[in-house]
């Protein structure tokens, strides 16, 4: 079994090797892991040469800084193409990025909670801290004078854990499939002066200022006290495209679960823990994300278990990075590198994943604190995608979905 994959993933042994062997037994295919490892080595060498370095004479620290330098160049060029610069204020850059995404031709339909139903839920549990913060004594007055999608997205910042837990219980009991509708995804730039004091902790923790509300189909740019942020353009634009994919991903998952008697409970648990496991095979929890991407890439009619609720357009999926290439062709340097990394013995990987590199650059991370989370998640997904191409494994996954045997669990990292 591939040592490279194990080391890149920091996977636990002997469970990792045993699970890959079980996948081989199920599918009758051997050495898929070794083929993937060889491909990663080839892509690593090619990318290093593209950076002007020698793959055999470049250590990890040199590679990290070369990738950082490439991100810096690409970010500056992207900002200039938007009529801005890396030195421009956050308030100047963000609207330009949102405009680019809003004018991109891409699937935006999602199956999400009706705003009228969300309002009724808040009428039962008024967000009193938010009302006080905004200076409202009446919730109806607040609904009338404020952007509701902005209000709903701000609940996580204003109300606190106890209120949110109670709201989740209300959501579980009340929400039914008939409370959902098809709607376009919205991107909202929250009002800086109204919300910046409430969103400060989120920005400090996440080290970025974009989030999303899956059940309402909104992507939210939250205000931050920083007036400038290095590398903001190349950090934020991929995130905006990524969250459109994520909302559509969970929209399809909600549709798939719409026949369950405990629909509200399943949706609530999924929203709380960002879960959505579709099947468990060979000790691996295979996330709905992988299943949706696999069948979406086929371009065929959805399997019978998905119908009649999940349609071909619900499964349509395109890498967020592909939209970036249309905005800035030089970003193709990062194409197909999302699951690629290099790792020395007893060391953390150096990731070639654009999210990991651009986030580390923007957040002023050093070599010792480099990021590789997104690369690892992409590599897990790639492993599952390759084995899913085998009919026996595909059949087992569809049977599990059909029987709804598996409760949502967190994707293994």
Describe the model.
- Mean pLDDT is 85; it is low at 305-315 and 401-413.
- The protein is 57% helix and 8% strand.
- The longest helix has 25 residues, at 232-256.
- The protein has 19 helices and 9 strands.
- The chain is mainly α.
- It is globular and about 65 Å long.
- It has helices at residues 3-9, 15-27, 32-50, 60-81, 90-102, 115-124, 128-134, 139-145, 148-158, 161-174, 192-206, 232-256, 263-273, 288-298, 312-315, 320-327, 354-362, 373-388, 391-403; strands at residues 109-113, 180-184, 186-189, 210-213, 218-221, 277-281, 284-287, 341-342, 350-351.
- Strands 3-5-4 form a 3-stranded mixed beta sheet, sandwiched between helices.
- Strand 6 (277-281) and strand 7 form a beta hairpin.
The chain-level mean pLDDT equals 85
Overall shape: globular
Q: Strand order within the widest sheet?
A: 3-5-4
Q: Helix segment count?
A: 19
Q: Which stretches of 5+ consecutive residues score pLDDT under 50?
A: 305-315, 401-413
Count all strands and give the number.
9
Q: Which labels suit this protein?
A:
413 residues; mainly alpha; three-stranded mixed beta sheet; two-stranded antiparallel ribbon; 19 helices; 57% helix; globular
SSE order and pairing:
Blueprint: H1 3-9, H2 15-27, H3 32-50, H4 60-81, H5 90-102, E1 109-113, H6 115-124, H7 128-134, H8 139-145, H9 148-158, H10 161-174, E2 180-184, E3 186-189, H11 192-206, E4 210-213, E5 218-221, H12 232-256, H13 263-273, E6 277-281, E7 284-287, H14 288-298, H15 312-315, H16 320-327, E8 341-342, E9 350-351, H17 354-362, H18 373-388, H19 391-403
Helix pairs in contact: 4-12, 4-17, 5-12, 10-13, 12-16, 12-17, 14-18
């Amino acid at each position: 079994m591939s040592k490279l994959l194990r080391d890149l993933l920091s996977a636990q042994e002997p469970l990792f090797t045993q699970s890959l062997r079980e996948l081989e037994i199920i599918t009758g295919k051997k050495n898929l892991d070794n083929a993937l490892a060889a491909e990663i080595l080839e892509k690593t060498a090619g990318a290093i040469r593209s950076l002007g370095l020698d793959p055999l004479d470049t250590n990890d620290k040199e590679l990290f800084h070369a990738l950082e330098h490439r991100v810096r160049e690409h970010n500056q060029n992207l900002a200039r193409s938007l009529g801005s610069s890396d030195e421009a204020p956050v308030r100047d850059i963000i609207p330009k990025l949102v405009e680019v995404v809003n004018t991109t031709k891409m699937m935006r339909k999602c199956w999400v909670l009706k705003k009228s139903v969300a309002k009724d839920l808040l009428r039962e549990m008024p967000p009193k801290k938010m009302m006080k913060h905004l200076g409202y004594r009446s919730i109806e007055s607040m609904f009338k004078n404020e952007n509701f999608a902005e209000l709903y997205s701000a609940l996580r910042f204003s109300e606190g854990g106890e209120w949110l837990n109670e709201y989740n219980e209300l959501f579980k009991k009340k929400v039914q499939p008939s409370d959902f509708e098809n709607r376009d995804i919205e991107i909202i730039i929250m009002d800086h002066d109204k919300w910046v004091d409430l969103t400060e902790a989120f920005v400090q923790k996440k080290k970025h200022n974009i989030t999303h509300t899956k059940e309402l189909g909104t992507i939210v740019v939250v205000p931050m006290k920083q007036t400038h942020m290095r590398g903001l353009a190349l950090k934020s634009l991929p995130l905006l495209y990524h969250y459109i994919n994520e909302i559509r991903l969970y929209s399809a998952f909600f549709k798939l679960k719409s026949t369950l008697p405990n629909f509200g409970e399943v949706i609530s648990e999924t929203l709380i823990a960002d879960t959505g496991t579709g099947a468990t095979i060979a000790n691996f929890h295979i996330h709905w994300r992988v299943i949706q991407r696999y069948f979406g890439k086929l371009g065929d009619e959805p399997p019978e278990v998905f119908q009649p609720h999940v349609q071909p357009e619900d499964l349509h999926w395109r890498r967020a990075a592909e939209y970036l290439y249309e905005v800035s062709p030089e970003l193709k340097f990062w194409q197909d590198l999302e699951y690629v990394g290099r790792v020395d013995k007893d060391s953390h990987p150096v990731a070639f994943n654009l999210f990991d590199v651009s986030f580390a650059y923007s957040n002023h991370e050093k070599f010792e604190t480099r990021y590789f989370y997104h690369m690892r998640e992409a590599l897990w997904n790639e492993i599952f995608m390759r084995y899913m191409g085998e009919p026996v494994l595909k059949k087992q996954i569809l049977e599990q979905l059909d029987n709804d045997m598996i409760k949502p669990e967190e994707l293994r990292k």
